[in-house]
Amino acid sequence: MSIKPREVTFTSNHIQIAANLYTPHSTTAELTNRLPAIVVSHPFGGVKEQTAGLYATLLSQNGFITLAFDAAYQGSSGGEPRYLEDPSQRVEDIKSAVTYLTSLREVDPERIGALGICASGGYVPNAAQTDKRIKAVATISAADVGDLMRHGLGGTQSVEQLNAALEQSSKERTLEAQGQKPRLEHIVPNTPDDVTKDTPTLYAEGTDYYRTSRAAHPNSANWYVFRSLDLMVQFQAYALNELIAPRPLLCIAGDKADTLYYSERCIAAAKEPKELYKIKGATHIDLYDHYDPVLPKLSDFFEKNLK
């Protein structure tokens, strides 16, 4: 049964955040029975109407109240400059989403979980390290954008390349102060024609997902502010993962994903209870919308730990 979300807003560091709240149909008739809730956070470059909204819908159909939101500077949310990727703000957005859920009379504030997809598979564990209101933590196709920007996918970027990029990123701050518009760069190749045989699977399949009818959305414009680089480089997603315990952690990833090592690192840095669940034959992007092998494990995890 399809569940139509309710459009809501909340604030995060004084920025208005746009979100979709999914409530199981039974809740409207049983408001005295508070339900568990799950924050669902989208990938780098994504918006709430794509994979985050899909999983929010599916989990809501299984009896959870869910909240999918656009990060600050992204989608329908506020914040300038547009398309800035600020990990510290992304983490704060997740914590603010939890705060919003605690304000709802239909939500049990002691039974709130969080799900992060792709880059949010770094942001959600990071938020949960210190926000103890998050009682269960899950990721799908996790990625640590800090490590990705420092070392490149699979460690393919040299220190010299990183320093050169940071030099330019620093110059962009000065240029903006002088009145120049922020420099924008594409996150993945902008059209299928821009994909070559040398394009890594993550980015080639990202183009297929974000830049075709598969999941294209007008609010997901495939841009990021180039000077976001210095903000991302400083971010270390899993540095304090041991603080998540004794709350449970589940990382779901395809065994063919070129980002699998991030899920492995997320788990390695955490204490029990924790689990790495691999989907046979799946790549990173596969799990954005091929949910059949994911949903039973994900739902069971939240059922056991929130219900």
In short:
By secondary structure, the chain is α/β, with parallel strands linked by helices. The chain has 11 helices and 10 strands.
Question: What is the helical fraction, as a range of percent?
Answer: 25-40%
Model regions low in confidence, pLDDT < 50 over at least 5 residues: none
**Class from helix and strand fractions:** alpha/beta
How many structural units, i.e. domains?
1
Percent strand equals 15-25%
Write the element-wise H/E pattern from the N-terminal end onward. EEHEHEHEHEHHEHEHEHEHH
- Quick one: CATH class? Alpha Beta
How are the strands ordered across the major sheet? 1-2-4-3-5-6-9-10
What is the number of helices? 11
Query: What is the CATH-assigned architecture?
Result: 3-Layer(aba) Sandwich
Mean pLDDT: 97
The whole-angstrom Rg is 19 Å
Set down the secondary structure blueprint:
Blueprint: E1 6-12, E2 15-22, H1 25-29, E3 35-41, H2 51-61, E4 65-69, H3 87-102, E5 107-117, H4 120-130, E6 134-140, H5 145-151, H6 159-177, E7 184-186, H7 201-210, E8 223-225, H8 228-233, E9 249-254, H9 260-268, E10 274-279, H10 286-289, H11 295-306
Helix pairs in contact: 3-4
